[in-house]
Design a protein that fits this description.
- There is one protein chain.
- By secondary structure, this protein is α/β, with parallel strands linked by helices.
- The strands form two sheets. A seven-stranded parallel sheet has the order 3-2-1-4-5-6-7, with helices on both faces.
- α2 links the parallel β2 (29-33) and β3.
- The protein has helices at 7-23, 35-38, 55-60, 63-80, 91-104, 123-130, 140-147, 159-162, 169-176, 193-214, 228-235, 249-255, 265-272, 285-294, 302-307, 322-334, 336-352, 358-369; strands at 2-4, 29-33, 42-47, 85-88, 108-111, 133-136, 152-154, 184-188, 217-221, 244-245, 258-262, 277-281, 314-316.
- α5 (91-104) packs parallel to α6 (123-130) and α9 (169-176) crosses α12.
- It has two domains: 2-158 and 357-369, Rossmann fold, CATH 3.40.50.2000; 169-352, 3-Layer(aba) Sandwich (Rossmann fold), CATH 3.40.50.
- 51% of the residues lie in helices and 14% in strands.
């Protein structure tokens, strides 16, 4: 049984299923899936698109789906007793399932750690009680878990296997109808509907201004969890065409001169492509206020967290405005020395994330934990 809670987890889960099937083609898989897991031999009990939420207040708005999913998965755990429960991120939901699995004697492998090192560190005690193995993707997480006596293994980051470029910039820009001689900015507003509501109007307003003063061009990358029509409706407010990229997003992002990325997996993907970026994030003010009380780290962008310093700009909450986004963008596009320094720092970060092959290493851990199927 495998449970994911967002688009990035869906991608990592699909890679893991494929790696496990190479070891044992007779394995069966079921649980919560997105588009990519559904393209494998996965029995989908609930879809990721019905679970996605963001922040404490926004999550409450989706509570009916969350409760329905939990009840279904709880019942399934009890009746089908899988040989292994694999959980990918999504801690508020997944740790409840882990607790039940522990009572049922089903081993639990947690892949992609909850950010307990950033906030709600008290959860580490629960993790130690209900998780049999933690497969972490950032090297600094190992020491944290070992200090709290949680079995842990650094498997490298799964994005190292998938963030690849196969087409040249000129080819991509030609397909998008963009001029290779003019600066190009990629919009990555997020993978959740609320993220689009908070980020995209500001991005569109900033894009309108930059196009006016610098003839800058733009495209927007659609996450698989987003409705294209809703995304298009917001982009149309720009008054000029902003193409939507749906496939080959790494080729597309690599063709950009700058990326505006909502905090999350997209910022790490952008970092691995060594692309200058501005990290943006907004939530409701109540969620932000609660986060300020709970979060124990200085940065929100994973590139800055790993580096331990500000190597890319972050515009969070009230700092995120069209004016600030335009100012930060002009500084990066016009200052070639600052741009080169940012790229060099991102290259160092990539080297810190280990070697490709995370899915294979997690598959080996899964096989070692697999319990005999109960009659």
């Amino acid at each position: 049984m495998l449970v994911v809670g967002e688009a990035s987890g869906d991608m990592h889960g699909a890679s893991l299923v494929k790696a496990l099937l190479k070891r044992d083609p007779n394995l069966t898989f079921f649980g919560v899936a997105g588009d990519q897991l559904q393209r494998t031999c996965f029995e989908t009990l609930f879809t990721v698109s019905k679970l996605t939420g963001m922040g404490l207040l926004e999550l409450a708005g989706n509570i009916k789906n969350i409760i329905a999913a939990y009840r279904l998965l709880r019942r399934t755990l009890r009746t089908r007793r899988p040989s292994l429960l694999i959980l990918i991120d999504f801690p508020e939901f997944n740790l409840r399932l882990a607790r039940l699995a522990k009572k049922l004697g089903v081993p639990v492998l947690y892949y992609v750690s909850p950010q307990v090192w950033a906030w709600r560190r008290g959860r580490i005690r629960e993790i130690a009680q209900v998780v049999d193995k933690m497969a972490v993707v950032f090297p600094f997480e190992v020491e944290f878990y070992e200090r709290h006596h949680v079995p842990v293994e650094f498997v490298g980051h799964p994005l190292l296997d998938v963030v690849r470029v196969s087409q040249k910039r000129e080819s991509i820009l030609g397909q998008l109808g963009l001029d290779k001689e003019r600066p190009v900015i990629a919009l990555l507003p997020g993978s959740r509907r609320k993220e689009i509501a908070y980020h995209l109007p500001i991005m569109v307003a900033a894009a309108t201004e930059l196009k006016r003063v610098a003839q800058t061009q733009f495209f927007c990358v659609r996450a698989s969890t987003l409705d294209r029509a809703e995304l298009q409706k917001e982009l149309d407010r720009a008054g000029f065409v902003i193409p939507i990229v749906e496939g080959g997003r790494y080729n597309a992002v690599n063709a950009a001169d700058l990326v505006w990325a909502a905090s999350g997996t997209a910022t790490l993907e952008t970092a691995l492509l060594e692309k200058p970026m501005i990290v943006v994030y907004r939530v409701s003010w109540l969620t932000y206020w609660l986060a300020r009380l709970l979060v124990k780290i200085k940065y929100i962008g994973i590139a800055n967290i790993i580096a331990g310093r500000r190597i890319v700009p972050e515009l969070v909450q009230s700092d995120l405005s069209p004016k600030r986004l335009v100012q930060e963008s002009q500084a990066i596009l016009n200052d070639h020395d600052a741009r080169r320094t940012m790229i060099a720092n991102l290259r160092v970060l990539r080297e810190q994330l280990g070697a490709p092959g995370a899915a294979n290493r997690v598959a080996e851990l899964a096989v070692s934990l697999m319990a005999p199927v109960k009659a």
